[in-house]
Amino acid sequence: MSSSRRLFFALPLPDALQQQVIRWRADxxxxxxxxxxAAANLHLTLAFLGDVTPxxxxxxxxxxxxxxxxxxxxxxxxxxxxxRPGVVWLGTRRAPRGLLQLAELLRSQAARSGCYQSPMPFHxxxxxxxxATQPVAIPPATPGWTFSVEAFxxxxxxxxxxxxxxxxxxQWPLAQQETR
Length: 180
Ligand code: 2AM
What we know:
Helices cover 23% and strands 37% of the residues. The protein is of the alpha+beta class. The protein has a single domain (5-173), classed as Cyclic Phosphodiesterase, Chain: A (Alpha-Beta Complex), CATH 3.90.1140.10. The strands form 3 sheets. Strands 3-1-9-10 form a 4-stranded antiparallel β-sheet. It has a 4-stranded antiparallel β-sheet with strand order 2-7-6-5, with no helix packed on it. A two-stranded antiparallel ribbon has the order 4-8. β5 and β6 form a beta hairpin. Bound molecules: adenosine-2'-monophosphate (2AM). The site of adenosine-2'-monophosphate (2AM) has 7 residues, from β3.
């Protein structure tokens, strides 16, 4: 259907962290390793929805708006390479429970609404390089950034002028993190 949009729920990266990541990435990988993802496109996908009709998008955004969950801290301390999709990624060695719960809820709501969900287990990651189909020297460690996740967003993936851009459409806050 022509009015369908390609949508996904994801965690945005704070602007300052985007800049830190791309500065580090420029030193950590050679230009041959793969095609760098633009700073503004860095995100961590929670649930990929695919091409979605306006009616389904409305139903899914209403469900997303009812989610009540505390925020959490996310430490980016893992790196890897998936040669088949050609992706070099940044991830976490210990996914916080809040991240797994949020992704699980969004993915099950998507599945119940008829959006195909991959049977592969959820592996939280931020894609750093694409078209990385050749062996890549992965640095032994990341700087180990930690950031506070206070919201999640719905994005539209748009291919225009030969580039893919991810437009944030809507954002929902997570409750304040409990301090003990
Ligand atoms: P990737 O970065 O590992 O390619 C927008 O395309 C986002 O949705 C990207 O983060 C992408 O993951 C993810 N994505 C794209 N197609 C997907 C699919 N079929 N299943 C799960 N995630 C997908």
